[in-house]
Amino acid sequence: MTRRTVRIAMNGVTGRMGYRQHLLRSILAIREQGGLDLGDGSALWPEPVLVGRRDLALKTIAERHGLDEWTTDLDAVLADPGVDVYFDSQITSAREDALRKAVAAGKHIYTEKPTATGLDGALALARLADEAGVRHGVVQDKLFLPGLLKLRRLVEGGFFGRILSVRGEFGYWVFEGDWQEAQRPSWNYRAEDGGGIVVDMFPHWEYVLHNLFGRVTSVQAHAATHIPRRRDERGEPYEATADDSAYGVFELEGGVVAQINSSWAVRVHRDELVEFQVDGTEGSAVAGLRRCRAQHRSSTPKPVWNPDLPATESFREQWQEVPDNGEFANGFKAQWELFLRHVVLGTPYDWDLLAGARGVQLAELGLRSSAEGRRLSVPELSL
């Protein structure tokens, strides 16, 4: 099998997500399997060029994994004609400017979300990329989770009949950083640095809802900062200026109503850190990261409300496990493989910068809805 090389500038790999999911479990995992089989007798070999602000951290990662190229000079990387793809997993506030530079340099774009700090910037990026003729994609990893892939199978198989509603619960307790170290970086809780759970999670909910159930047509949200004071990575106290919890109601095309709670200030009493319950006229299902359980109309129990007597039914046991019926790869790696095929073969790819702009739009409208205390329509986007 012949080898074709694609050089990828990976900006932000010293961060948790950039390193673990994108470098280690995606790009390096593709290399460990011998490259990406293109189906024509050749394999695509990704060659990462590590980019970031901390040279020692970059050097450490490069040496750990036997990589040759790393730099703190983004402009030099973008000026290198041998670099094919620019990937961005930086802090949100730095992303838009770097993506604009990469588009101007003629690089194909793959990026984490949100793609910009506002809708105008996100749409401008999508237009610039289209005008430049570069291929572009946005990470929408939750679509590739085993639980949601099984849920998609039920949707496409007509299991639910007419879908009525979606209920989502996401979150966990992020320690304040005083007596236990926080599991998330402190910038997540500073609005001036692009932090906040609405900005972080509403783009996820947009693509999950859009791809599985229909376009979001309205949003009513309440954002809150439940923990107003935290400690940063150095143990110094700081004021949390961004929301750590959000409660949203979304109307979708076709009349489906979705309610999704997102919180970094909630203790988990569910099987997985995120779960979606879908109810339809013919059946219901509950999907998490990996599991999906379903209950058909024909096997739905008939409970009767009587608070004077203890419940005798085990409701959880009345649901049937949806089988895997296949093997599931890491979701980030699976989407990387689709995007790289798109870059070198021109295969179809739906999750582009316009899709990313829809996520920015929903976050922006969610924050505005919370500030104004009212429901807002979500206009359909186009370039």
What's the helix-strand series? EHEEHEHEHEHEHEHEEEEEEEEEHHE
Supply the number of helical segments.
Answer: 9
Tell me, rounded to a whole number, the average pLDDT: 96
Shape: globular
* CATH topology label of the largest domain: Dihydrodipicolinate Reductase, domain 2
Strand order of the largest sheet: 17-16-15-14-8-13-12-9-18
Low-confidence stretches: none
Strands, count: 18
Structural class: alpha/beta
- Taking all Cα atoms into account, the compactness measure Rg is 22 Å
The count of domains is 2
Question: Can you summarize the main beta sheet?
Answer: 9 strands, mixed
Q: Please identify the top-level CATH class of the largest domain.
A: Alpha Beta
Span between termini:
41 Å
- In CATH terms, the superfamily of the largest domain is Dihydrodipicolinate Reductase, domain 2
Please state the second-level CATH architecture of the largest domain.
2-Layer Sandwich
Helix proportion range: 25-40%
User: Strand-residue fraction?
Assistant: 15-25%
Pfam families: GFO_IDH_MocA (PF01408), GFO_IDH_MocA_C3 (PF22725)
GO molecular function, one term: nucleotide binding
Protein name: Oxidoreductase
Domain GFO/IDH/MocA-like oxidoreductase: 149-285
